[in-house]
Amino acid sequence: MTSSDTLVLRVAGRPVGRYVTRPGLPARLAPRPYLHPVTTLAGTAVTEVSPADHAHHLGVGVAVPDVEGHNFWGGRTFVRDRGPTELDNHGTQRHTGFQLRDPDGFVEELRWVAAGTELLRERRTVAATGLTGRAWALDFTFSLTNVTPAPLSIGSPATNGRPGAAYGGFFWRPRKEAAAPRVFTADRDGEAAVHGTRADWLALAGPGSPRPGGAGSGGGWTLVFAGATEDTRRDPWFVRAAEYPGVGSCLAHSRRPAVAPGGTLVRRIVTVVADGALSRDEAAALVRKAVAQ
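RESULT FIELD:
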């Protein structure tokens, strides 16, 4: 633990992630808790916060661009027949407390608030688990409960008229490096072949880059994302590699799911964080081990 507003996740005593509960961010970035930096066991950073290309990308967390018209993603809102538009419609995810807080994980309560009204109440469960000498797993579950008297629909730029932009839900923003990361699943290769498809797991592999200050070079890394429930596996993947690196699980790919009053939407993503480049067989084996734990 570093302060009342941050905590450090550890695997076998080794720090692998810092969680910020109350970031001091402008409203336009849709303030919300996030994990950053997340590192491999060797210390290579595999997240980024507020990069120049997208200031509202915040490490690892949950971000949704449209909850009944409110923007919990940050930045501009995609409006049908108008395109990306600056609107005063941003929401905030407010940390209200921890039900459990240990070195290897936590259970957190949050309130999703927009325009002075609480829309959703979230329970977030995060755990860090060692897998091998060069890999660990981040188990991330979020449960969103509608606390309003009316249904809440969840949308994305895709459901609002922008093809291929179905982002919204769990999202991981890696650090941008000199070369684009490799994207692959069990049977596909490349951003174009994987983006918008369903797959039991998806890997993003980066070559590493020079460390700040010239202290040698950062090693390569691989992130392997897996939906750990049937509902999560039904969500297609959102993938970016060439323009910037990013992976998310799409809650609203081709339709707007609605959460009934008192209803709860639950998703669970398990991510393997590994040093070096993993083969398909290695990625598949580590994901099976991580999900089974």
